[in-house]
From TrEMBL:
InterPro entries: SGNH_hydro_sf (IPR036514). This is Unannotated protein. PROSITE patterns: PROKAR_LIPOPROTEIN (PS51257). It comes from freshwater metagenome.
């Protein structure tokens, strides 16, 4: 039986369709040594690092346990604002392209400009649909009331409990964002089912953010998705699927901060993934392309 960390790296190999090219051996002090590491589609991966367009970046550090280790099934609900909205199917489907091959059945409920209360709205509507794990990234649009933010985030985590849940920290683009990340870790410390992914630290690496210092660049989006995939690991069951989203209104943000669906003159080939009782289509990871993200500054996010 593989350890959780081994399963995570094997998941990357499966994601790239190169499981046969991967080998895992034990090292000292419980370390895992990987040889001929597989590739995330469009990204060269090695350990906790990825190389995108010749530039090496480190994946986000995971504080806690990979979600796939403790999930009872593979239905995954992802909740966020414009940063995760840009990974949804309507903008090229980067999240599904990364997670479906790992066996996850993924619904991305993310809308631009939403604050933390949006998570409570989504869960009130969809929590009873049989989810097995959750990912929440809601903190960039922070109203400055730390007590209210903690109350709303706690309600979100309580609604998802006891399901394995992943919270992402926010980019420290202004001083008050430190309150957001402090609150995220405070809330996480109270729940044994919650892990934290440190996107806040990862995002400040060169080339991962646009000029607004908030929204990820195309390279940053790939690192973000790869980091989430690493934090999830392989789902306990399969196959995966890209599930429909109910929340798709990005009108709160009028500036062009979200990625294009495709690069000019290119299309997204589609594959059909069938699961019992459900037929869905997901973008082919190796050939999906997105236009470069805009570099204008806007608020909300």
């Amino acid at each position: 039986m593989f350890s959780p960390r081994t399963r995570t790296f094997l998941g990357f190999c499966v994601l790239g369709g190169l499981l046969s090219a991967c080998s895992v051996t034990g090292g000292s002090n419980g370390q895992i040594i990987l040889q001929n590491v597989g590739r995330i589609p469009g990204i060269a991966a090695s350990g906790g690092e990825v190389i995108i367009d010749g530039q090496r970046s480190t994946l986000s550090a995971l504080e806690g346990t990979p979600l796939g280790t403790n999930a009872a099934g593979n239905r995954l609900l992802i909740i966020g604002d414009s940063i995760l909205s840009g990974t949804a199917s309507r903008y090229g489907g980067a999240m599904c392209s990364a997670l479906v091959p790992l066996g996850w059945r993924v619904a991305v409920e993310a809308e631009a400009g939403q604050m933390v209360g949006f998570g409570r709205t989504v869960l009130k509507d969809r929590i009873y649909e049989g989810w097995d794990a959750g990912v929440v990234f809601l903190g960039t649009n922070y109203g400055g009331n730390q007590e209210k933010y903690e109350r709303d985030l706690t309600a979100i985590v309580e609604a998802l409990a006891p399901r394995p849940t992943l919270l992402l920290t926010a980019t420290l683009n202004r001083p008050t964002m430190q309150q957001v990340n402090e609150t995220i870790r405070t809330v996480a410390s109270k729940f044994s089912n919650v892990s934290v992914l440190d996107w806040g630290t990862t995002s400040i690496q060169p080339g991962l953010l646009n000029r607004d210092r908030v929204h990820p660049s195309d390279a940053g989006r790939k690192v973000l998705v790869a980091s989430i995939a690493s934090a999830l690991g392989t789902a306990p069951v399969s196959p995966g699927a890209c599930l429909s989203s109910k929340y798709t209104d990005d009108s709160l943000v009028t500036d062009d901060v979200l990625p294009g669906t495709t690069a000019p003159g290119q299309t997204i080939p589609m594959n059909t993934t069938t699961v019992p009782g459900v037929a869905t289509t997901v973008p082919t990871a190796a050939t999906t392309t997105v236009a470069p993200s805009a570099t204008t500054t806007s608020a909300p996010r």
